[in-house]
């Protein structure tokens, strides 16, 4: 079982509804729980030595090293050379262990629960039912309107035939790993594909987020668009069809990039 799945199902954060199989030996000895405590201690206190972790958790250094070996193998933590400030003492600097980006992401899933709770509070405060749904939709539109303002400048600076690509690049900078390409088949237009969605787990419960996003795409591109698939509904990619027109490029384009500029939910 991977270290990421362990962290996501440790009672602190939730990651979907998957059932994770755990070796019987780990269930009996609490190995998984202890590894989660080791990773959590690094998250709370920053890069730590084996001695630091052992003292904080009340474990032997040998036990800490064993758990760290597993966490390193699962790409949850990584070993680094400890930074030394001031005069360096004799001998090699102590090795410290820090969370990797993957390890930190596993804990960041707890924000999904916070965001979903906030959306439910909005709905309940408005009276629930249709009023609650309308309040959530209003919030989703306001959120996307604010986000759209950061995209508008990029689109207005691009020629009309390149605005879908410009939108894909702007979305990529916000963590959506977006691409723009000509739509396959007989239809004349483009597909805007988002290969990652920072709010997918919340959008599963509140589709108003996806609907507001689609409305914003239409306004930014100045044409009707059609959402074909969403990650929130279980599809592999969020796909939006853009008919040939004001926002469409004339040739295949790609705006794929890394998700370094993450947009926290």
Task: Please provide a written account of the structure.
Helices cover 49% and strands 12% of the residues. By secondary structure, the protein is of the alpha+beta class. Strands 3-4-6-5 form a 4-stranded antiparallel beta sheet, covered by helices on one side. Strand 5 (226-229) and strand 6 (238-243) form a beta hairpin. Helix 7 (110-125) packs across helix 8 (129-157). The chain is elongated.
Short description:
The chain has helices at residues 3-8, 24-29, 31-45, 50-57, 61-73, 101-108, 110-125, 129-157, 163-173, 200-203, 208-221, and strands at residues 77-81, 95-99, 178-182, 189-194, 226-229, 238-243.
**Helical segment tally?**
11
Structural class: alpha+beta
Question: How would the global form be characterised?
Answer: elongated
**End-to-end C-alpha gap:** 27 Å
Order of helical and strand elements: HHHHHEEHHHHEEHHEE
Order of strands in the sheet with most strands = 3-4-6-5
Percent of sequence in beta strands: 5-15%
Features:
WH_DNA-bd_sf; 49% helix; 12% strand; alpha+beta; elongated; ArsR-like_HTH; disordered C terminus; 4-stranded antiparallel beta sheet; 265 residues; two-stranded antiparallel sheet; 11 helices
SSE map:
Elements: H1 3-8, H2 24-29, H3 31-45, H4 50-57, H5 61-73, E1 77-81, E2 95-99, H6 101-108, H7 110-125, H8 129-157, H9 163-173, E3 178-182, E4 189-194, H10 200-203, H11 208-221, E5 226-229, E6 238-243
Antiparallel strand pairs: 1-2, 3-4, 4-6, 5-6
């Amino acid at each position: 079982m991977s270290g990421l799945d362990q962290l996501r199902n440790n009672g602190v954060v939730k990651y979907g509804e998957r059932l994770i199989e755990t070796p019987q030996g780990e269930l009996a000895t609490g190995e998984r729980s202890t590894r989660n405590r080791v990773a959590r201690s690094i998250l709370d206190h920053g890069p730590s030595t084996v001695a630091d972790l052992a003292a904080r958790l009340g474990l032997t250094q040998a036990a800490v090293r064993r758990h760290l070996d597993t966490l390193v193998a699962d790409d949850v933590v990584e070993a680094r050379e400890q930074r030394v400030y001031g005069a360096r003492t004799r001998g090699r600097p102590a090795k410290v262990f820090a969370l990797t980006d993957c390890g930190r992401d596993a804990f960041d899933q707890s924000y999904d629960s916070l965001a979903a709770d906030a959306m439910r509070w909005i709905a309940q405060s408005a009276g629930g039912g249709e009023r609650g749904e309308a309040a959530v939709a209003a919030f989703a539109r306001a959120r996307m309107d604010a986000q759209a303002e950061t995209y508008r400048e990029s689109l207005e600076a691009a020629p009309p035939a390149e605005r879908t690509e410009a939108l894909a690049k702007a979305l990529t900078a916000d963590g959506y790993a977006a691409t723009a390409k000509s739509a396959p088949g007989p239809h004349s237009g483009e597909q805007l594909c988002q290969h990652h969605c920072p709010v997918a787990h919340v959008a599963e419960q509140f589709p108003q987020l996806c609907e507001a996003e689609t409305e914003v795409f239409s306004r930014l591109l100045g044409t009707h668009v059609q959402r074909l698939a969403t990650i929130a509904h279980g599809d592999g990619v969020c796909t939006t069809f853009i008919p040939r027109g004001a926002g469409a490029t004339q040739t295949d384009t790609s705006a794929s990039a890394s998700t370094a500029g993450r947009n926290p939910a």
